[in-house]
Structure to design on (207 residues):
């Protein structure tokens, strides 16, 4: 039914809120809920017609650094584009590039939601694999500015907000403004599990 939901769209993206491993969860993290999907998850996404997925969320490293290594290898072997995670910060913030009807599009993913006890080991840095973090938005803002120079439309796909809360939390609105100032045309996200507001911030669409 997912392919029916996206019917007619030329670019289709979802939030894949789980680790993807090949041999079970090698390093379950210290958190209430651990999500782990098999390698066939990539096949399922591709078969459903989903163009790409982000794993920049609070479950992307549920199976630790060993799980991340498996996750990245699975995506590479499947030739399926996953963004928002990487073996270092450069890879984690790497945009997905596409062209639709001549329109050059860049999509960048990051998360503002990571359990406090896991931030140090989950955030991708120059020396550590992990998720693209927007807790400190500096690298995300730079990624948007860099993408802005060579494409027509910049999309930022975030994991943000507070679960079950329909109003933005104090971190969301300032981040949206920073990203729009940096050149984002669309800022959209997940995590609250309920709908928040949407509309224009200047000429950019924020949802």
């Amino acid at each position: 039914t997912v392919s029916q939901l996206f019917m007619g769209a030329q670019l289709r993206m979802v939030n894949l809120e789980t680790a993807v491993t090949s041999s079970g969860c090698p390093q379950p993290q210290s958190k209430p809920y651990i999500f782990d999907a098999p390698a066939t998850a990539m096949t399922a996404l591709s078969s459903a017609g989903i163009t790409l997925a982000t794993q920049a969320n609070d479950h992307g490293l549920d199976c630790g650094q060993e799980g991340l290594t498996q996750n990245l290898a699975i995506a590479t072997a499947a030739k399926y584009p996953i963004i928002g995670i990487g073996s270092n910060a450069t890879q984690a913030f790497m945009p997905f590039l596409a062209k639709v009807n001549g329109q050059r599009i860049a999509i960048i993913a990051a998360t503002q939601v990571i359990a406090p006890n896991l931030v140090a080991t989950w955030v991708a840095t120059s020396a550590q694999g992990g998720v693209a973090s927007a807790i400190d938005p500096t690298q995300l803002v730079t990624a948007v500015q860099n993408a802005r120079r060579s494409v027509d439309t910049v999309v930022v796909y975030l994991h943000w907000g507070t679960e079950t809360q329909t109003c933005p939390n104090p971190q969301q609105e300032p981040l949206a403004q920073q990203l729009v100032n940096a050149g984002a045309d669309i800022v959209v996200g997940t995590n609250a599990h309920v709908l928040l507001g949407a509309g224009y911030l200047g000429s950019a669409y924020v949802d």
Q: What stands out?
A: The first strand starts at residue 13 and ends at 15. The mean pLDDT is 97. The first helix runs from residue 2 to 5.
